[in-house]
Amino acid sequence: MTGVSRLRIGGAAVAALVAGCVLGPLVIHPPPADPVVGALQPPLATVTALELDDGTTVVARRVEATSDGLIATGAGRRRVVDPARVTATTRHRLLLGSDRFGRDVLYQLLVGGRISLAIAALSLVLAVAIGGTVGVAAATGGRLVDAVLMRCVDACLAFPLLFLMILAAAVLRPDPLLLVLLLGGTSWMGVARLVRGQVLSLRTRPFVAAARVSGSPWHRIALWHYGPNLVGPVSQDTALRMGDLVLAEATLSYLGLGVPPSVPTWGSMVAQGHRALPEGWWLAVFPGLAIALLVIGLALLGDALQRLTEPGT
Amino acid sequence: MKRLPRRLVLGLAIGLISACANPAPPPATGNGAPARGGTVVVGGLGDVLSWNPYLAEDQTTVEILSLVYPSLAVEQVDYQDHPPSFAPSLATGWEPSADGLELTFSLDPRARWSDGVPVTAEDVAFTFRTQRDPDVAWLGSDAKDAILEVAVVDAHTVRFRFDRAYPYQLMDANEGPIIPAHAWGGIPYPQWRDVDWGERVVSAGPFRKASHRPQQELVLERSDGYWRDGRPYLDRVIWRPMPSRAPLLAQLLTGDIDLVNGLDPADAERVAADPRLRVVGFPDRGYSQIRWNLRRPHLADRRVRRALTMAIDRQAIIDVVYLGRARPSVGPVISAMWAFNRSLQPVAFDPAGARRLLAEAGWIDSDGDGTLDRDGVELAFELLTNSENDLRQDICLLVEQNLARVGVAARPRFVEWGTMLALETGGDFDAIVSGWIEPTLIDLGPLWHSAPPGEPTLNSVGYANPEVDRLLEAAAEAATFAEQKPLFDRIQELIVDDQPYTFLAETERLVGINARVRGAVINDASPYFNLDEWYVAHEADVR
Amino acid sequence: MTRIAIRRLVTLVPLVWLVVTVTFLVVQLAPGSYADTLDHPRLTPEARQNLRASYGLDRPLGEQYLRWLAAAATGNLGSSYLFKEPVIRVIGRALPPTLLLAGTALLLDLLLGVLLAVAAARRPYGWVDRLTTVLGLGIYGLPSFWIAGLLILVFALGLGWLPASHMHSVGAGELSAPGRLIDLLRHLVLPALSLGLVGAAATARLLRATLLEARASRFVLAATARGLSPRRILWVHSLRPALLPVITAFGLALPMVFSGSVVVESVFSWPGMGMALWRAAEARDIPLVMGLTLVGAAAVIVGSLIADLLYAVADPRAREER
């Protein structure tokens, strides 16, 4: 794989995920959820949805007409329905199966992807912005600034965030913006250390030294000399961090800080899917694959960026 | 983040184990006489945290220490038709006085502590002093509130004197194990919290402590001096504490542990499918419910609460969440208990009726957004439960689906256990999905008697019905069970009428056990109810 | 460099104090107390209140804090509410398993990571590079509990080669000393792999990137011009500067050796610091939380110091002008 092909493959993977999540839910029309007989249908199953007059729906793999009425079977359970109460019948194909509550996994995955991707991406932007600023400032701001900033980083790393989250969960109402602030605000320290290290070593490079001697202002140096050389390592780091953030969202949900439990996210789908693995392998596998695809795609993009910005190429 | 929820940790492994477990022949049914010897390994989530039963603050420690220290009598599991009876243990018998104010116990003269010293009436008196001591601050000391004095009559006779005649005297006298006066009596109570009790265990049960590595392994071995003939049969019982459920199930399936007390319904299906294992299920006096905060204006209306109950498909919850291993819950006394009012009927599932009842209470969808409203306020609330409990989370999601169909917006929110308790005690919630385990001593007061504001109470929903208060006070004064029963019946009717809770399901305790373990009677009194009679089948019997 | 070390060690105490103080505040403000989390069968609301009083949880916040600080200053970390024994003893019991597990994992992380990265960087975009990239990303893309689960599934349940949990087998106390050691090592393999593989994948990726960068630097060009062998250039001239970001990452990972990993310790029932912190948090066991935070904070700060010192050793330029 050359840099260009990595760029193409990685870009295609990430673009496909994003496009699927943004557009997919507009195109797919899943059947209403039936937790009793419609639960845990395997991928590619075709189901019949019977809408009843009281507003409920029965979704089943098999519906047989007998003298007792319609017998719907699925998930090891059966239900008898009076044909007179059926107001509409539709058929659906569940490409990725249904979950323990009879919800369409593909639809959940795409809707959940919107939230997971948005939250992870925004938190990442926040983390990189804080971490990058602190890192550059520490590396270029002189001994005292460096010492103060890096000791702050140490203190933030040493603080057991768990308790802060428990406190936040009790005092604050869950809110997506809060989630971004918490995730971004607690994961910038690694970026700061990485950037500081890179800048420290860049400072001694001839081109930076030349720029400093020729009197370029610091912000010009930061933007034009440090910036491009940081893209490679930071984007590498970012790709791996993104996967962590998607999963960390599930952790915060556990503490009651995440998105509402009935809204799917990839992190919570993986976590919930694990519980039900014996009953339905597809529940954990598909969201897990989505996260893995995201990480791999971003990492390939990072590789490509590194190659394209490598000095001397 | 240094922390990830334990639930997230549930192994991929678990799921697939059932697929790789080797099929084994079914266990042989032929069982000869109980054989001596062998080891049983028990897996559980807890560990012994203090070897002094009066400093113990958790369920697991209490359960395990009840095997090491003796009790006067053993409560039997026969509460279905009458209050539970008791079988002799350290006490060979007991006799009430004519005025009903005294209870005299005769102790088994053969009983010995593990260091050879006889167990005497002095130990019983010392135990009582310990139970009441403010420095020890035993959590269960309220059980002894009615006991005025424990007098040593002779070495093997001890007399309890009560301040009044009431039906639970024997139960209260028996509460808490007997501890060794000769070994512990010399340590002043104020110093008890600083003592390493693991070093000072003097036991008198069928088993004694052999070794204990906290959070790793606890070994109890047969106590040779145990005074009951031929018992116990087992050489050793080993506890393996585990931090989460995932390794518990995995190790039960691989045969590394023999018993797991408290399986999830889905785990129980997997255990039941393995021919080398069996599942014992029994009602554990637990029931799950939605607690409605009656201080919230829209939930204060009894019609609204009844409509919410009608809109929730409780049978679907039993089928989907408990996988059929539960029964519908009707009211505040579980249906297996002698005090249950058998004329009560559960509120029927009826979404259409729920809509009508809500409309009657003024809740209609006037703005056409799908959610009912009244005076511009939507019928919406938060449905709280704790993240550690998967089953309750599933219930929340099903209830959300159910209520959405009648135009009620329930928003599930899962928080960590400590947070939920704090929100509940502070009254800072709309509705909570939770559960109670009902004690065999029926006392509805703590949950249902109206409490003055600011007083600690379990009545977190703010239920206040003057008639219920009056009946509860009358029941507490009653001298016999027969006097209590009609009062209990009426209380249950009133509470079911008011629906301060939506009663969901009466749950089962599920115990997974290896088929090689024989003779085990497992019930809701204790998973180790008759541990001294357990034995291990010979390899040849099983294979 | 000694001066740097001394200067940094001086800041250790106030920094740890700051972290511990903020933690105390946050834990106290978090809802629920130890008395609220108990599940004792006979616990009445009154008993809960008495219990709160007997642990001093009803005292004013400032008084509790000063009391704890005064005791801690003399080396007394108090008694754990949960385990009913001195915090020092709980930590003393949880630390060795964590040191063993996380230390092994970190070693695995570095060794495997460096080897893979060097193998990949010898011929960038060659087949070794591609293979390690795909494998590394595959491992990194999966949540760590999946990897643990997969290892248990294959090696413990499937093949039956290794135990799936705990540090010792049932009855290991009766084995001979070498037997006990082998038993321990067998129990160590799977958790150490679960913890180390993800790290190795990350290290390899990071190092590969910086190795490629170093290849283009003037050191390496000069070395190539001097006619040194490619092997020597790779291992000596490129690797040393390329290790810088790895060292940064190492410094960040070092505290894990003292504070443990909740996920892996929980999956494998490994009785380490991660599990202890988890249980302490759940039970609102304030003395234990504070003790563990103290150890963890000191580890982070010392870890960062060690990383910076190593950094100075690896890159002479970092010493210039600082």
Tell me briefly what this model is.
By secondary structure, chain A is mainly alpha-helical. Chain A has helices at about 5-25, 105-140, 145-160, 160-170, 175-185, 190-205, 205-215, 220-255, 265-275, 280-310; strands spanning about 45-50, 55-60, 60-65, 70-75, 75-80, 85-95. The longest helix of chain A is centred in the C-terminal third of the chain and has 37 residues, at about 220-255.
Topology-level CATH name of one domain in chain B = Dipeptide-binding Protein, domain 3
Beta strand % of chain A: 5-15%
Strand arrangement within the widest β-sheet of chain A reads 2-1-6
Largest interface, and how many residues on either side?
B-C, 69 and 63 residues
Q: What is the CATH architecture annotation of one domain in chain B? A: Roll
Question: In this structure, how is the largest beta sheet of chain B organized?
Answer: 11 strands, mixed
Number of helices of chain A: 10
What number is the mean pLDDT of chain A?
81
Q: Strand tally of chain B, please? A: 21
Helix content of chain A: 55-70%
Helix-strand pattern of chain A:
HEEEEEEHHHHHHHHH
How many DSSP H or I helices of chain B?
17
Itemize the secondary structure elements and their pairings.
The complex is a heterotrimer of chains A (313), B (543) and C (322).
Chain A: H1 3-27, E1 45-52, E2 57-60, E3 62-66, E4 69-74, E5 77-81, E6 86-94, H2 105-140, H3 143-158, H4 161-171, H5 176-185, H6 189-203, H7 206-213, H8 218-254, H9 266-275, H10 282-309
Antiparallel strand pairs in A: 1-2, 1-6, 3-4, 4-5
Chain B: H1 6-9, H2 12-20, E1 39-44, H3 59-68, E2 73-75, E3 86-88, E4 91-96, E5 102-107, H4 121-132, E6 147-154, E7 157-162, H5 169-174, H6 181-184, E8 207-213, E9 217-222, E10 236-241, H7 245-254, E11 259-261, H8 265-272, E12 277-292, H9 302-311, H10 314-320, E13 326-328, H11 351-360, E14 373-374, E15 377-378, E16 380-386, H12 390-405, E17 409-415, H13 417-425, E18 431-437, H14 445-448, H15 466-477, H16 481-498, E19 501-514, E20 517-518, E21 535-536, H17 539-542
Parallel strand pairs in B: 1-10, 1-11, 16-17, 16-18
Antiparallel strand pairs in B: 2-3, 4-5, 5-7, 6-7, 8-9, 9-10, 11-19, 12-18, 12-19, 13-19, 14-15, 20-21
Helix pairs in contact in B: 2-7, 9-11, 15-16
Chain C: H1 2-29, H2 45-54, H3 61-73, H4 87-122, H5 127-141, H6 144-158, H7 177-215, H8 218-225, H9 230-253, H10 256-259, H11 262-267, H12 273-283, H13 286-314
Helix pairs in contact in C: 1-13, 4-5, 4-7, 4-9, 4-12, 4-13, 5-7, 6-7, 7-9, 8-9, 9-13, 12-13
